[in-house]
Amino acid sequence: MGEINEILQALTQELRRGTIVLSVLSQLDSPAYGYTLVKNMEEKGVKVDTNTLYPLLRRLEKQEILISEWETDGSKPRKYYKRTAFGDAVYESLRRQWEEMTECMQKLLCN
Amino acid sequence: MENNLIERYLYDVVRRLPEKQRKDIEEELRTLIEDMLEERQKDRGTEEVKAVLSELGEPAKLAMKYRGEEAHLIGGEYYPIYCQILKLVLICVGVGVAISAVVHLVVQLPAQGGGMNGVVNSVVDGFISLGSLPEALLSAFGLVTLVFFVMERNQVKLQKKEPWSLEKLTQIPSAKAVIPKSDSVVGVFFGVLIMVIFIALPECIGYWGKNADGELVAVSVFNLSIWSKVIPLFVISFSAGVVDDLVKLAVGHYNRTVMYVSIVCSLISVAAVTICLKGYEIFNLHFAEELSAITGETFSAKYDILTHWQSGIASRVLPNFLLAVIVLITLLELAVTVYRTLRYGQKGKEASCLQ
């Protein structure tokens, strides 16, 4: 029975993986710095590993969903990401999908 | 010390990334690490650095996340066909090297002088040339992998990508379309064996006996003086047969690919044999005379082919008969292949890739 934790962990992780993009997109209406994003989301109870988020941001940028800019005013150069117009559209559709999905899931789980 | 650790970590990540992205990712990660350190403690010691880097995890894994889907050599789309081609190529290379080793062995035999020593020496030589097998297999493996790697990177389409449909699903080969592996293996084995004997030991096919001095001598039925000219034709002819059998072995059932290969190989084989038998005097015209000289016998019986050897048997009857037999057997085999393919083989799309 010791395996149940392991299995559960893998399943939870898989469940969470699907929500990461939506979570991240929801926070990038205005420019945000990667590590601040991690912290903010953590405060709201959504834990994203830093080593997952950073590559993800870059991938979303490559897909032109996000746009980035180096901010060199502070003591250290920081890269800020925010949604593009295309990203806005993607985010809106994804969000609607999510709402539909949670609604259906709710119905399933209530049985 | 801690800076050194950070630099080493960064280096270990970015060295696994495409050149163009390195600087950017390095900067980004460096700031991130600084921020993570600051958050933990104002005065940062080695322990903190270690904790932060451990949290970021193994450099190879981090780099892999950055690389995304390119992290494989040959992806799922190409993998099955890659395996099939690899199998086919490795079998061909293996058989090729084995053939050359055997040829080498047999060719060396007379040069080593007779006796037990000579045989042992040439067997050893043969094994030495077999020693190039791993190298040949590795090269073939590397080459095939390289080709597929390039295709993967450039997303070369193997076939025009059409949306799949139920109608286009590959047919399950009918039981009657299956080619027994043993047939192909026997074909390859004897093809190679006969080729080797014809190439290397034509002088041994004929009469063996002791001459007046009691020495063992052989009289070949073949005309050895033109042998070097007909060897290429033999090689072409037998190789075509061996290729045909290898394709059958690899595919395992009759289909259009096998049928076309068979037709081409049979044509090549028959053409080479025809040139060989009609274009050259391949039999030893003086076989009967030489035989008489050794045995002291003369051939005069009316129906003995040796009696008429020089006056037509060797130059006309035997080659024509041989040619007829070879053409007949080849056509018969080809007919079976064509019949089974058309009757039981699959129709449609599958023909374009080896199954």
C-alpha end-to-end distance of chain A: 27 Å
Strand segment tally of chain B: 2
CATH architecture of chain A: Orthogonal Bundle
CATH class of chain A: Mainly Alpha
Radius of gyration of CA atoms of chain B, rounded to a whole number: 33 Å
The biggest sheet of chain A amounts to: 3 strands, antiparallel
Name the poorly predicted regions of chain A.
Answer: none
Number of helices of chain A: 4
| Series of secondary-structure elements of chain B, N-terminal to C-terminal | HHHHHHHHEEHHHH
Helix amount of chain A = 55-70%
- Greatest chain-chain contact: A-B, 16 and 20 residues
Q: pLDDT average of chain B, as an integer?
A: 80
Number of strands of chain A: 3
Number of structurally distinct domains of chain A: 1
The helix-strand sequence of chain A is HEHHEEH
| Major β-sheet strand ordering of chain A | 1-3-2
Quaternary structure classification:
heterodimer
Distance between the termini of chain B: 59 Å
Give the helices and strands, then pairings.
The complex is a heterodimer of chains A (about 110) and B (about 350).
Chain A: H1 3-26, E1 32-33, H2 34-43, H3 50-62, E2 66-71, E3 78-83, H4 85-110
Chain B: H1 2-14, H2 19-40, H3 46-56, H4 59-67, H5 79-111, H6 115-130, H7 133-154, H8 181-200, E1 206-210, E2 216-220, H9 227-251, H10 256-279, H11 287-295, H12 309-343
Antiparallel strand pairs in B: 1-2
Helix pairs in contact in B: 1-2, 1-3, 1-4, 2-3, 5-6, 5-7, 5-8, 5-9, 8-9, 9-10, 10-12
